[in-house]
Here is the input.
Amino acid sequence: MPLELNRFNNPITITRVIYLVTALLSEARPLIEYYDLKHDHQSLKISLYKSDEVVLVVSGMGKIKTAISTGVVLSKEENIERVVIADIGIAGAPDKYEIGHLFLVNQIMDESTQRAYYPDIFVKHSLKEEKLVTADKPHLNGEDGDYMVDMEASGFFEAANIYLPPSQIGCLKVVSDHKKNVKLNREMVSELIRNRMPEMDEYIRSWHSLITDQEKEILNIDDRQLIVSLKDHLHLTTTQFRQLEKLATKYKIESDNLDILRGFQELKARTKNERNGIFERIRTVLR
Amino acid sequence: MKGMEFLSASEQYSVNPDFSHIYIEKDALDYEDTHLVLRKYPESTRIIVDHYKDVFARSGQDWRLQKKSMNLILAIRKDQFLYSGSEVTPDFGYDRFFYNALVLNCIYDCDYCYLQGMFPSANVVMFVNNEDYVRNTLEELKKGPMYLAVSYDTDLLAFENIIPFGSRWIETAAQNPELVVEIRTKSANYRAIRHHKPVDNVILAWTLSPDTIAKLYEKRTPPLKSRLRALKSAMEDGWPVRICIDPVMRVKNWKDHYAGLIETLAENIPLQQINDFSVGVFRMSREYLKRIRHQRSDTDVLYHDYETKNGVTTYRDEERKEMEQFVVGLLQEHVINNIEVL
Here is the structure.
């Protein structure tokens, strides 16, 4: 795994993880099969399934459980810029939509708070987009409303948005009923999700690629280590260190490397005046 | 075993075109301009929202990614139809200098643009109740002559084919000689307003940069040649035209680039007939620059050894003066006065 420095200049391993969240194990099972995920027995409070690239959280039903599970897994993620997270599951829908139809959600409305959430959708896709209402209780009486209904998405989005921009949060729902009280056993739920796995996978892969393809940091690990070593070696002040970072970034954009700074690693500063003098020389060469 | 190969291949994807999603305030649904926009984008996904800020002001939005695939928000402005000019903008000698915000954000993607630090989103907001802006402006005009920049936190002419705001303000100014309107642009879309008779109190202002600077920092903008062609047509038609060389950027060989720009201008444009010039070096609110640095690190604009005075970050005094004097000096070889330095 490649290494990078985080914002505190500590080395971290770069991972590019896709997080998936489902409420029910029956919704999770097709994902476990498709991505060949293994149960993480070390996680006791939250049900996790993992591979190197995919982490699946089975949160339990309802927006509070989903929000807690989502928050817990994202709070531990160091490479937050490189991950996406998707809430996947079943939902009730108006009669006009067939059972088994897959939707990409572009608006989530919390029924009780009337607060709306909007995932950013940037990747071209062939899925149909729809609005989803998150309710505290199931809608089982064939209620009107030209939208889908679930019980988790608003809690999921609210928690995920603490850590991630709306462009890295997504929601995919498969129609399970027409907001009527129909009996669905576990295998039927799994089958609904399983039938849509290739389409979901295609969308998630494209979306994740877009996110991880974003512009990389200008300064790589060698550059950052060089700058940190100059800071430590010359006893630069915090202000000088910040200036050095900016000037080095500008220089790197223009010149493609920071070799010009390597000579300064040999210099020693025994007094403040000497340090300030060397720093001025560094500023001059980087300008 | 699909999981094992899940991310190994380089994945292909396309990004949605601009305005693939149009968010519409529910109160804006019945406005004529809303229908006008929706007719132009029949394929777009439409999402009804309570208030434009529900989308525009979401927390933690990815500005850079949004800029690759901008969405459109149609909204109703309920107040603040006029703002007083800020200290870092030119007032061109008018005591009563105002600007308005018919559109928030811009179709172009300039590295040095303050909008990146000002707005939480790169999505474009268009306010579809232009008539309320006009009514408020005419009320203010009763207090005395005023100068109004209508293409301020945006580039209005670049949007003229979507909603013809420029045309409407030209018509308003034509009926109100004490209202001086400036339409500032980097676009080459002069043809969209060419059908209007020139109006003495409407100034068409083009922001020009050397081609090297435009290629480096002004993504999505038309090249200098196209902007010059549009500017020249406007002059020939009889419009008052302003040239803005702003921001002047201190890149490698900057003197050569700006000397080349002025030379190109002098060769192609009768500079004596230009209404006026404005020249200003790169400057930005310290807070905006801080926010932009948080979003992106891919442009050297952010890392110059600037200094900050009174909350405004710009080149150090000696650099700033050198740049201003150099560009103004070049212009003065062709024109005597009417050069405003910002």
Chain A touches chain B through 49 residues (CB under 8 Å). Residues 123 and 210 of chain A are 7 Å apart (CA to CA).
